[in-house]
Amino acid sequence: MKRLSDIGTIKELLSRHGFSFSKALGQNFLVNPTVCPRMAESSGAGQGVGVLEIGPGIGVLTQELCQLADKVVAVELDKRLLPVLDETLAEFDNIKIVNADVLKLDLNRLIAEEFDGLEVVVCANLPYYITSPVIMKLLEDRLPVTAVTVMVQKEAAQRICAPVGSRESGAVTVSVNYYAKPELLFHVSAGSFMPAPKVDSAVIRLDILQEPSVDCDRAAFFRVVKAAFSQRRKVIANSLSAGLGISKSNAAALLEQAGIAPNARAEQLSLQDFAAIARQLNGGNP
Ligand code: SAM
């Protein structure tokens, strides 16, 4: 097996394939040999498990996943990497590469077609330019996956894993906690990548909940979260009024019925608080 964390090996491989890095596609490849084994171990990949990987690059994490899991399906947008992956993953017969944009794929269908009878987890070093859309797609599509272990920018990891109701929380914190239990696993320095990005990274794991963490209409919940955080420095009555397009007195009435102080701020509210507002918005119905 080629040592894909060895810089000399990578340079030789990439120059032989005439490959140059695309900044636009977020191509920062991992070269720290300790990170991929640790990520793969943490992801839940193992016997009886299928892994969906996003953005395999030259296959450094893919190799680790293939050694642990029954099957790996890796979605890579850049077709220039396909011949490279053919070479680096040649010894594995449990890998399938799908050349597609992950944001445009029907992932439910892909999983049903590829992972029949297996528990499914996601493991990826995500391209940073689409971190939030990919994470939200993985959650909103209600995929039959048990966990999502991904490398993201350190700041994004801290935001996602902040406690709901803390100063560090934001719309993405509340949205992720609706579907999953997030945990920050470990930090990865910028020097662990080639080329090195400007910022550090972290690996997070989202354990997917069987049912959403609160009982209310999903669309109403997300309307409220979006509105509440649209002007996070304002008090909740004002941000809801502006974000939901309702009068200030209607926003105040909504909050009173939900039992929430109108001068609270979005970052102080709990999941139950957001759900209570969503229920009132829906005429008191769950
Ligand atoms: N997994 C490799 C590693 O850890 O070294 C590469 C990770 S690199 C940060 C992100 C990878 O995602 C690149 O290979 C890039 O081409 C791919 N990518 C970018 N946008 C994508 C998209 N929309 N769909 C699928 N793959 C994408």
Features:
binds S-adenosylmethionine, two-stranded antiparallel ribbon, seven-stranded mixed beta sheet, 40% helix, single chain, Rossmann fold, elongated, alpha/beta, 286 residues, 9 strands, 2 domains, Helicase, Ruva Protein, domain 3
Fold and architecture overview:
- This protein has 12 helices and 9 strands.
- With 286 residues, the protein is α/β, with parallel strands linked by helices.
- It has 2 domains: 7-208, Rossmann fold; 218-281, rRNA adenine dimethylase, C-terminal domain (Helicase, Ruva Protein, domain 3, Orthogonal Bundle), CATH 1.10.8.100.
- The strands form 2 sheets. The protein has a 7-stranded mixed sheet, with helices on both faces.
- The radius of gyration is 21 Å and the shape is elongated.
- The N and C termini lie far apart (54 Å).
- The chain binds S-adenosylmethionine.
- S-adenosylmethionine (SAM) binds at residues 25-30, 54-57, 60-61, 75-78, 81, 101-103, 125, 127, 130.
Strand content: 15-25%
Strand runs, count: 9
Low-confidence stretches: none
* Basic shape: elongated
* Distinct helical segment count: 12
Number of domains: 2
Name of the CATH architecture of the largest domain: 3-Layer(aba) Sandwich
> What order do the helices and strands follow?
HEHEHEHEHEHEHHEEEHHHH
Describe the main β-sheet briefly: 7 strands, mixed
Could you name the CATH homologous superfamily of the largest domain? Vaccinia Virus protein VP39
Strand order of the largest sheet: 4-3-2-5-6-9-7
Range of helix content: 25-40%
Rg? 21 Å
CATH topology label of the largest domain: Rossmann fold
First-last Cα distance: 54 Å
Task: Kindly report the average pLDDT value.
Answer: 96
Global structural class: alpha/beta
